[in-house]
Write a structure and sequence with these properties.
heterodimer; A: four-stranded antiparallel sheet; B: about 325 residues; mainly alpha; globular
């Protein structure tokens, strides 16, 4: 019996060993030039902006591998990288752009970066067989220089206002992708780089390692030997891992734990307001509450919300002084364009009550009161009781709802919570238009204002609130074909002040703050609010 | 016995088919898997349409289910929804990691639970018994996620005060784990904290079973007879009582093993261990029904197999049990 047990145990150990299998070989040993960057989400593969992989996490790894003609710095301004200077607008009709690559712009295998690389990239994005996330802009190009020239001329079929962003996108190496099926390429490795770092290894479920590209001479080289992206899904664990020294840099979502690091002398916290903004969409369609089609009701809603208080309560500890958002088209970060247009709708509970009464609404309170339970009913549109949708599992949104629910209840407007998972809310409820008010965020970028017609234009692709103002739509269409950024900003600000502040298609709440936390021994990381992320200036990062 | 096994396996196939259809239906109805794609800026309708066509998302659910069955049977569970990644290689990878965790936990839990259970039973109502009973109730009542977070906090506090990191608090390996024996030492180091956390509830539960089974056995007639024959207490306990008291525990362990192979979801998430549980959570967060289905099917198969193993083991260990 004893012998049988021993054999059984030995057999189990053998089977377990076979199943578990041999270990993978480890990369080079740690050096002082290694920085570990803790991130929440692991890129599913290394394809870049492909369907299912349109992630910031992927951009963080690939931005410094597939370099662009220019990149956006921490102020979102374009800075030439592979190019000698910023691309030049040669002609408006047809839109013609010229750029020139630096002589020092070379791939890590020694081949020069040339016109053929940008041409190949254009063809990747416009090939209908490729599952790229977006072809916007690329499909508007009619011709481009080919071959080994360092100078490139690009001619567009029609005006594409955001052409500069297009040329900031990373270029593929033509000689590497030639003959490849792009949907199956770069899944687990990237063989070359035109940027400051090279792909080194991928340990699925754990980390991605990139190392200094010794052949990068188009700009300042990395001082670090390598950067390791470590993936930790759980929020608390990420913060604990940073404290425990398992990583040195992190870009956390706005979380209360950041306050601990702000007080800790061993860490540096950099913060900036970003492009992503929370807002409350209003339903103008047939399935929405009829009261919401009345301008005075929408005006009562925005006037009854103390948006500054909401921002203060949510972010007071980690981003003190975060302002409420006063524009739907620009963010406070965009100092040259941002105008506080919605400041014309200041918080005033007394004004809400007098406005509603002046329109013949009855049954509400006479004065604002926290304990009020009287709700207004208005002529022909009924009781001011609205379904309020937002996503589950987001504490900040739940708190936002609780605050504004109380604020509006004080003035006789009721909000009924309808919390749903992101999948159900964005996939089913939002496009169904069967909702009244919906709190969510638009993920913005420096180019968002150019495509504002998609959200606020009549019949826009993402206009699920069914808002329509023909005059505004005309302006937004003009904006998307205006090449001068200053002129675009003026058109948009004038239109927002004239139409959107009056119509209130949506209530801006606040732009989310962004953070970078790093151990003091790592120098260099600062918030970059664009898709470049904090490693945009990796050449300046050092560690002691 | 063979007839019994074949009959159980045939029942299991029916159960699997029904379960897979129900789960597929529920997962499909739980939301639009393309929701994230639809609200992404600049995503063209053509892009969305390509995915819909590739994955037959506009077909009725029974038809989609059949496509899924075809993929599962002939194409190793097929590929993920959006980026077309093969599912099975990823599942094998995470299964290996979960197996490492689960084997370590179960082995240690059984050793400690048996020792505690036996000693508590033969020293019933002693201070040790009371202490262990108290710890067991505490262990059973403590939520795993809380214990895991507290374990991390304690390790971090020790690190901040002494500069010494007792255990890593996240991931399966170090940035540079090395190879061969160094790799396995590093892996054991990384698994130490999650194993300790999972052991608490495991020992708490199993030691109570062991104590109860042992108490029943030590008061039975045949044990009294063994003592009357003049055998030493040690021999009575180890040879006569313990072997019989282990029967219910073996059954329980076999039943549990199938379930926990599905991944210690909470522990793997908190400690960021690349196992079945974390794979499942990531698939859910990505709103991707195909890896979710593959995970659920593999877990279901494991549970069915280990239920069968438990029944067979029970029959082998207890000669009174017979199968029709």
């Amino acid at each position: 019996m004893r012998n049988r047990s021993v054999w059984l145990l030995a057999g189990l150990v053998l089977v377990a060993s076979l199943i578990i299998g041999p270990a993978t070989a480890a990369p080079q040993k740690a050096t002082a030039g290694t920085v570990v960057f803790i991130h929440d989400q692991e890129p599913p593969n290394l394809q870049g902006p492909w369907v299912g992989n349109n992630l910031y996490a992927t951009a963080l790894v690939l931005n410094n591998i597939w370099y662009g003609c220019q990149i956006r710095d921490a102020t979102a301004a374009f800075v030439p990288r592979l190019c000698v200077a910023r691309p030049k607008l040669v002609k408006s009709n047809p839109l013609t752009i010229q750029l020139e690559y630096k002589k020092s712009a070379v791939w890590s295998d020694g081949k020069p970066v040339v016109a053929e690389d940008l041409y190949a990239t254009w063809k990747v994005y416009t090939n209908p067989a490729n599952n790229v996330i977006s072809r916007t802009g690329w499909e508007d190009i009619s011709s481009m220089t080919r071959g080994n020239s360092k100078k490139v001329t690009i001619v567009f079929k029609k005006i594409y206002a955001d052409w500069e962003s297009l040329l900031s996108a990373g270029h593929y190496a033509a000689h590497v992708i030639a003959g490849k099926t792009m949907n199956d390429t770069f899944l687990t490795s990237v063989p070359v780089s035109s940027g400051p770092w090279l792909f080194q290894s991928l340990q699925k479920g754990v980390q991605i390692t990139v190392r200094k590209n010794p052949r990068f001479t188009a700009g300042p080289q990395m001082k670090l030997d390598r950067l390791v992206f470590r993936y930790i899904l759980d929020t608390n664990s990420r913060f604990q891992a940073l404290k425990a020294g398992e990583g040195q840099v992190m870009e956390p979502q706005p979380q209360l734990q950041i306050a601990d690091f702000m007080k800790d002398s061993k860490f540096k916290v950099d913060t900036k307001v970003g492009y992503t903004y929370e807002h409350i969409d209003i339903q103008f369609g047939a399935k929405g509450h009829p009261a919401l089609k009345q301008p005075y009701v929408r005006q009562a809603l925005i006037t009854g919300m103390n948006r500054a208080q909401v921002a203060g309560v949510l972010y007071g500890e980690i981003a003190p002084g975060l302002p409420s958002l006063q524009s739907l088209l620009f963010k406070p970060f965009e100092t040259a364009s941002y105008k506080k247009n919605f400041a014309a709708r200041p918080f005033s509970q007394k004004n809400v009550i007098s406005l509603l009464k002046s329109k013949g609404c009855t049954g509400g309170p006479d004065t604002p009161s926290r304990g009020n339970d009287k709700i207004f009913s208005c002529p022909n549109v009924g009781k001011l009781s609205f379904r309020f949708h937002t996503t589950t599992g987001n504490q900040l949104r739940a708190l936002t709802f609780e605050i504004i629910q109380q604020q509006l209840k004080s003035v006789g407007i009721e909000l009924q919570p309808r919390f749903q998972t992101g999948g159900v809310m964005f996939g089913t409820t939002l496009p169904s238009r069967d909702w009244d008010l919906m709190l969510f965020a638009w993920v913005g970028s420096p180019s968002s204002s150019i495509t504002a017609k998609d959200i606020y234009g009549c019949g826009g692709d993402q206009n699920d609130g069914a808002y329509c103002n023909r005059a505004l739509t005309k302006v937004l269409e003009k904006v998307s074909a205006t090449l001068d950024a200053g002129e675009r900003a003026k058109l948009l600000n004038d239109a927002e002040a004239k139409y959107m502040v009056k119509d209130i298609p949506s209530i801006p709440m606040f732009a989310r703050p962004l953070f970078v936390i790093n151990q003091n021994k790592v120098k260099g990381p600062v918030v970059n609010p664009t898709q470049e992320g904090s490693p945009w200036n990796i050449n300046q990062w050092t560690t002691s | 016995m063979l007839t019994y096994i074949i009959r159980r396996l045939l029942y299991s196939i029916v159960v699997l088919v029904l379960a897979s259809f129900l789960v597929f239906t529920f997962v499909t109805y739980s939301g639009d898997p393309l929701a994230g794609l639809r609200i992404s800026p600049n995503v063209s309708e053509l892009t969305v349409q390509n995915v819909i066509e590739r994955k037959h998302l506009d077909d009725p659910i029974p038809k989609r289910y059949l496509y899924w069955v075809q993929d599962a049977v002939t194409n190793e569970f097929g590929t993920t929804l959006l980026d077309n990644r093969p599912i099975l290689p990823e599942l094998w990878r995470v299964m290996k990691h979960t197996l490492q965790l689960v084997l370590a936990v179960q082995l240690l839990v059984i050793i400690f639970a048996v020792l505690i259970g036996v000693y508590s039973a033969i020293r019933q109502y002693s201070p040790f018994d009371y202490t262990m009973t108290g710890f067991s109730f505490l262990g059973l009542a403590t939520p795993v996620f809380w214990l895991a977070l507290m374990a991390q906090v304690v390790v971090v506090q020790i690190y901040e005060r002494t500069g010494h990191r007792l255990f890593p608090i996240a991931n399966l390996s170090d940035v540079d784990p090395g190879t061969g024996i160094h790799f396995w030492i590093d892996r054991a180091h990384h698994l130490a904290l999650p194993v300790l956390v999972l052991m608490v509830a495991g020992i708490a539960g199993y030691s109570r079973y062991m104590r109860a089974a042992m108490l029943e056995v030590v008061n039975s007639d045949y044990v009294r007879t063994a003592r009357a024959k003049g055998l030493s207490e040690r021999r009575v306990t180890m040879k006569h009582a313990l072997r019989n008291a282990l029967i219910p525990l073996v059954t329980l362990v076999a039943l549990d093993f199938g379930t926990i192979l599905g991944g210690a979801v909470v522990t793997e998430t908190v400690f960021s261990l690349d196992g079945m549980g974390l794979y499942f959570i990531n698939a859910l967060l990505a709103n991707d029904p195909y890896p979710v289905m593959a995970f659920l099917m593999i877990t279901a198969v494991m549970i069915i197999i280990f239920n069968l193993v438990a029944d067979i083991a029970y029959g082998l260990l207890d000669p009174r049990v017979r199968y029709d």
